[in-house]
Amino acid sequence: MPMQSNPTPGAKSGFLNRTWSEWFSTLPIFLILVLTLIIGTGEMIHGQLLRVGEHLYGDPATGVQYSFLRADPVAPKCERHPDIEAQVQQQMAGGGAASDDEFADLFGPQDPAQVRQSLLAAQQVCEEKYQFYENTQKYIDAHPGVKVFRAIETGFFAIFHFGTENRNLFLVIMVVIAALTATLNKHHIGLRPAVTRMDYLVHDAAMLLANGFLSYSVISYIQSLANSGVAVDPNALIINYLWATLFIATTLISLFRLIKPQTPKQQGGSFGLALMAVPLYAWMAIITGIAFIFFMDYSVGQAIYLGFLTDYVAIFLALGLFIWVGMLLTQTRVMDLFLNILRPWNFSPETLTWLILIGASIPTAYTGASGIFVVAAGALIYKEVWNSGARRQYALAVSAMSGTLGMVIRPCLLVVLIAMLDSKHVTSDELFDHGIYVFWFISLFFLTVSLFFAESKFRINSPTVAIPGMVRALGPVIPYVIITAAVVLFYRYVLNTEMNEFTAPMILPLILLAIVLFDKIRREPSSAAMAYGQTADDHEKMVQEHQKTSPFLRTHDAHGIERRSGFEAAIRFATSETVGHIGALIILMALSASVGGLVEKTEIVHLLPTHLNNIYISLLFIALLLAGIGMTTDPFGAVILVAASIAPVAYANGINPIHFWMICLVAFELGYVTPPVALNHLLTRLSVGDEEVMAADAEARAKYTKFYYRYERWLLPIMVLFPALMMVTFAPYIFKMFGWY
């Protein structure tokens, strides 16, 4: 795949037949991802161990609980058999500890009976401590298995406690390694790839300036912490040194490339197009760097807003795990086997795509952001849609939209975050209950628009042909369903943990690892035509013709052959793919936080009118504003900005909070597929590769004269999502006007 940081399977060199990138990039990222799984699962296991310990060693009859047995009891230091009368006389005579109390006689002389009663009560408490100590020690001595069990239990506690305390550090180490790898391999996300000499020159100069600003900001922040006179958390200091290491290293890399430029694919080039080759994060770093340093005297601004990552550490660790899940999925036959169930029906590409998008909404709902799923599975969807007979441009449009539908359905983590930020006005249940209607409306509208522009209209095989093929295709799928169910049930009944938006990052990677292992043991050849019935030969011919014109499909089929060579090779390859995506996506999100911080500092949002005097103007203004925000920021950063600044304006203009957030979610999706940035398209290119996207554009120009088909990958998502946004925005008020709602 073009723009990939990973090595080509089979072409190995270096120590133990592994490349330097695998040793210094892939292996560390793999260890961090696995450690994250161990930490998350260890917490679940530890909770169950506590329950098992209570069941095995708790004794209600004697009042012994397992929590008393987790460490050897410490003998009390109080005097068990004191001379009460002597202590009474001592206190009445003004001796002992009471004589040191300047307020002792404030309420008059002490009563000997009260003093004696107090000392007797203290003796009783001391006696109870000794009895507890002796009973607990006796119980431990009588049950030697306690020490073995508690060693295991406390060991798990130490693991997940250590991990929980250092999650911020693990995240930043992962981002630093991945971002360095993405920089070395030019894997960062830009509007177009660098191909000409001018592209490389402008790209490297912009990267030098951007990383220079970031280095200066982080160094300034470290100096500010050192001069603050306040004790600094050691982990926070280490994290800032890691950021400094990253940006100084990327600055030096960019300087080296500027002095000694790479050989371009083409000579010449124009300065205007070269500006589009600059990575988006570099533009964000340059803009915020100039604003913070030169206009606001706030040199530490970029470094402070990098804390956005560690403020939401669980989300970004989950993001890394979800990307890994997507890359692991490419090393399995799951997509082929599940699509084999649909292929006997010989659906038109548009109908098949609609069904794929509905299926893709589920993982999008768990990850909470369409961009994550596009990175993880965009290439898979592109391949399957094109192999079904669709146009390349159409396949790219579908890949960009592949995560759109799941943004509004349960259990989308983004909706949960909205409910947390705006808990006074909305709940997650309310948003999910309304979101399901938006989900089905957009999905059916997509099918309608796709069929309208289809070159071959709706088609379907006879049930007498399709059902037997569908039944045959169910057999190979059953083992994967059993594996998935087994892992989910293990967590449910053994670890007492249900799969939801919070536990999915821990459970899904284990499901995929188990499936990959099963595939390697099974080692059956992949055949996309297993369940095609009468259409198998035609399908294979079509795929072969596609492969002749597509380096993307040839590369992916080569990877498919390689992935069946062994479990370790598949995991290594999937992790190598993951590294570049993590580096490109998370750094972009981190700099999006700086842009949001700049907007906050400039107080531009306070210029928004609080009352527009017309509900329809208010709705249109807010919908377009939200779409604009979706063009420039990642979803989690955008939600935080919107909840703090735009939501109050909407409520002041009489917009229902639930309605507002439905508009917000759909507007974000429109923004992510709309130029000039169109983040989902950039992520699709990152997943599919530059050469394939350029080949699709060239094919469209050569084969089609109609404007729509030439630019279908841009127009189709907009033609679906813009009317959907207008419908979601205005439909409730139109329905009320006619008394339908």
Question: How would you describe this structure to a colleague?
Answer:
Helix content is 72%, strand content 0%. It has helices spanning 20-57, 66-69, 84-92, 112-142, 145-165, 167-184, 197-226, 234-259, 271-276, 280-295, 301-305, 307-311, 313-329, 334-342, 349-367, 370-387, 392-401, 413-421, 428-452, 463-494, 504-522, 536-549, 551-563, 567-602, 615-632, 635-652, 657-672, 679-688, 690-703, 707-710, 712-737. α17 (392-401) crosses α31 (712-737) and α25 (615-632) runs antiparallel to α31. It starts with 19 loop residues before the first helix and ends with a helix.
Rg, please? Answer: 31 Å
The share of residues in helices is over 70%
Oligomeric assembly:
single chain
Outline: globular
Brief rundown of the structure:
The chain has 741 residues and is an all-alpha fold. It is built from 31 helices and no strands.
Keywords:
741 residues, mainly alpha, 31 helices, 0% strand, disordered N terminus
How would the blueprint of this fold be written?
Elements: H1 20-57, H2 66-69, H3 84-92, H4 112-142, H5 145-165, H6 167-184, H7 197-226, H8 234-259, H9 271-276, H10 280-295, H11 301-305, H12 307-311, H13 313-329, H14 334-342, H15 349-367, H16 370-387, H17 392-401, H18 413-421, H19 428-452, H20 463-494, H21 504-522, H22 536-549, H23 551-563, H24 567-602, H25 615-632, H26 635-652, H27 657-672, H28 679-688, H29 690-703, H30 707-710, H31 712-737
